[in-house]
């Protein structure tokens, strides 16, 4: 009897403990964390590169539902999807959900970039960037961007019979960034900057294993070089401002250096300028070049859409009303409504950014589950874009979806984010895309030379970089 009682004294606490564990584990999302550190990272990256990431996630959704746990890039993660998930990500209280990218992105770009900041710091830095990138400010840069794009087309497109689009679009967007955001002229300094930058961004989505042979390690090394070059630029701009009376709005770095608070102190620290310059570089270089490339790919495969862009969108009329050498204006861009609808439908089907991460600052109850403090939350863009309950016949290309944007449910179309987390470079990208497409469709014809496939690494990359045959277009 004594033995039985003693056994009960041991067994009952164990059952209570197991019961409590089962009860708490039920509140965690379903799924497996997999192997520590690695988890499902390799499978996900493989799916990205094979262009099956959406299917990979749809299988998770079918198996576990719209909320599930896994391990990505070294951290326990909760994947959430849907319109409600997007709203949660882009409008959640900053004290509950923090901006936090993967360790690889954070280390490569810097911890003081906008995607890592929260509450007051996020608002301060975002307000500074928006002040430079808002439409009222961008109007004065349309002509400068126009000149950069025409120079690019004269150098790399005119007189060519065949070319590869994506590398050329990366050259174009990099040169626009250097010219408009950094005031960096063509030459050895810009070329060196470009080669280091391209190596740096290759490891932004990688397993954070810092060994000499890894992509992550190479990107970290190049990140250190890029940050050093930007610091040198900052010192040059500071001297120009203080000693030579440079215009505060001549480029982004000069503008940020000139900003002062009520006490006369600089609004941004040097680290914040460096890290956010890198963020704008990555966003403006990679995303815009990918969007333009996929529009060119679309127009090559859809002659009727190309004809509509040329005529319905008044691109032909705009071109004919311009004197030789006359630059496009902000008013010209406002007429390109159909072209922009084509661009948005293209981004719906092929968003340049696949998704991102947030960090739970406290235990969060979401959709009946607990997301533990410190875990990262993984959200993706394409899943609502291909949801047939939101966009009927999602595989069909249909720019008319965006004729009445008010009819699109909020937090469903999110290539630039949404709400208070809307990308501050939205208008900059719009201007860049519209000017480029205007000159392409009014000056050139083209057709593809490779198959229509593409992969993600982590952004979409068309087969062989999209080689095309090209010949002049005669509007007359």
TrEMBL record:
Any one GO cellular component localisation term in the record: membrane
GO molecular function, one term: monooxygenase activity
Subcellular location: Membrane
PROSITE patterns membership: CYTOCHROME_P450
CDD domains the UniProt entry points to: CYP90-like (cd11043)
Domain of life per record: Eukaryota
UniProt keyword annotations, A-Z: Heme, Iron, Membrane, Metal-binding, Monooxygenase, Oxidoreductase, Signal, Transmembrane, Transmembrane helix
Binding site for heme: 423
Cofactors: heme
Position of the signal peptide: 1-19
One GO BP annotation of this record: sterol metabolic process
Membrane topology of the entry: Single-pass membrane protein
Classification via InterPro entries: Cyt_P450, Cyt_P450_CS, Cyt_P450_E_grp-I, Cyt_P450_sf
Protein family according to the UniProt entry: Belongs to the cytochrome P450 family.
Record-given protein name: Cytochrome P450
Origin organism lineage: Eukaryota, Viridiplantae, Streptophyta, Embryophyta, Tracheophyta
